[in-house]
Please model this.
Amino acid sequence: QVQLVESGGGLVQAGRSLRLSCAASGSAFSTNTMGWYRQAPGEQRELVATITNGFATTYADSVMGRFSISRDNAKNTVSLQMNLLKPEDTAVYYCNARNSHWRNDYWGQGTQVTVSS
Model:
């Protein structure tokens, strides 16, 4: 079993920065692919960024150049640095963990990010 707990969300003005963190427990963190997803009201959950156990990263086009995902295997954490935030970044952000040996992905409960104009 994997438990994921997000933190760092809040209300921020457009153009400012915010850093989200996700703490993982109950698994071999270093073997997992970790990711951040987000979901705005009435919309589908979408991928924001992922980072593999080999530290390869992917980003949604909408956040490329503004967001940066990182992981600290020693601390079992994954972070999302969000810069130059836009109102369209407003969403609940979810931490995700996946492994080829697992039947299902694991998700945190989410943290709200609200960006005002």
Q: What stands out?
A: The chain has no helices and eleven strands. The mean pLDDT is 95. The radius of gyration is 13 Å. The first strand starts at residue 3 and ends at 7.
